[in-house]
Design goal:
Helix content: 25-40%
Distance between the termini: 29 Å
Number of helices: 13
Largest sheet: 8 strands, parallel, barrel
CATH superfamily: NADP-dependent oxidoreductase domain
């Protein structure tokens, strides 16, 4: 395991993050406490130091397990948790990005995690009811109080993140150093706005869903075989969400490529996300130790250019306006000089590969 700087901070985090959403079985699936501990220990033994959870995951059980597991390793662990999602459905202030929910959620998380600070505190999702100024100032307050060291943002439009960080820069508040979004061979829409924004702002991108809800593992050959229901998928049929005809074709190509290079489909899919940009840091989630062990194998895989090209091609999306338009207008924008101009390091290719 190697380490990367988190955004524009000096914090070193492992190049893979362990996601703890599966710690606990309160939602009818997930890992037992014993299996969660084995997963946690194996991740640390592999050199991992970056753990990601949230206040709502398995109704708080995830944070409780993580808090117990890190008790003897707290100084070594880079601990991340989140707030925003509603923990009291009948309370209009039981969720959201406002100051009241932030303060209450953080205090409750610290108790479950058995610590007096978190290294990275994520805004879990965009709350359009709360002014971004309120959120950024409230986050800065908990940083100044020593209860949070760094802040990040998840599942939020690019224009909101950009505005938030500009406000933080102008006001001297703590800026977002990380962005957490879904990104995979079957979910490439972040290439339109979110990833270019992250590149421009220097945000580390922690990626969830790198295996496309399990579709890219190759174990769902058709829409008839589906994974168990998740609390996060109850409003949308899982088959419609992940197991579409397009996604199954992509998964089949992943299986073919994996066979050619002697790796598992999961390792191949995660390796693709890692190769897309040095900013990308996948989150590994597992309900079994064997799954984590297999996923960690992506560290030993550098996808050959030909296989990378094939995966890029089958998962191609339209970037839409203005990116596709600007690509067509290159000649009138740059004349004949475009191929001679070097991109800034870390840029994801602007072509709809």
């Amino acid at each position: 395991m190697r380490y990367r700087l988190l955004g524009k901070s000096g914090l070193r985090v492992s190049e893979l993050c362990l996601g703890a959403m599966s710690f606990g079985q309160d939602w009818g699936w997930g890992a037992t406490k014993e299996e969660s501990r084995r997963i946690f220990d194996a991740f640390l033994e592999a050199g991992g130091n970056f753990i990601d959870t949230a206040n709502l995951y398995t109704n708080g059980t995830s944070e409780k397990f993580v808090g117990e597991f890190i008790a003897g390793e707290r100084t070594r662990i880079v601990l991340a948790t989140k707030y925003t999602l509603n923990t009291r459905p009948d309370d209009p202030n039981g969720g959201g990005n406002h100051r009241k929910n932030l303060v209450q959620s953080l205090e409750e998380s610290l108790k479950r995690l058995r610590t007096d600070y978190v290294d990275l505190y994520w805004v879990h999702a965009w709350d359009p009811f709360t002014p971004v100024e309120e959120t950024m100032r409230a986050l800065d307050d908990v940083v100044r109080a020593g209860k949070v060291l760094y802040v990040g943002v998840s599942d939020t439009p690019a224009w909101v993140v950009s505005r938030a960080n500009l406000l933080a820069e102008l006001k001297g508040w703590s800026p977002f150093v990380g962005l957490q979004i879904p990104y995979s061979l079957i979910e490439r829409t972040p290439e339109r706005e979110l990833l270019p924004m992250a590149e421009e702002l220097g945000l580390t991108v922690t990626v969830w869903g790198a295996l496309g809800g399990g579709a890219l593992t190759g174990k769902y050959a058709s829409r008839e075989k589906r994974p168990p229901d998740s609390r996060y998928a109850t409003a949308v049929d899982w088959g419609d969400m992940y197991l579409t005809e397009r996604n199954l074709k992509i998964a089949a190509e992943v299986v073919r490529v994996a066979g050619e290079i002697g790796k598992s489909p999961s390792q191949t899919a995660i390796a693709w996300t890692r190769k897309r940009s040095p900013l990308i840091l996948p989150i590994l989630g597992a309900t079994k130790l064997s799954q984590l062990t297999d996923n960690l194998g992506c560290l030993e895989l550098e996808l050959p250019d030909e296989q990378m090209r094939r995966l890029d091609e089958i998962s191609r999306i339209e970037l839409g306006f203005p990116l596709d338009f600007l690509a067509m207008a290159r000649e009138i924008l740059y004349g004949k000089t475009f191929p001679l101009i070097e991109e800034r390091p870390g840029r994801i290719p602007r072509k709809a590969a």
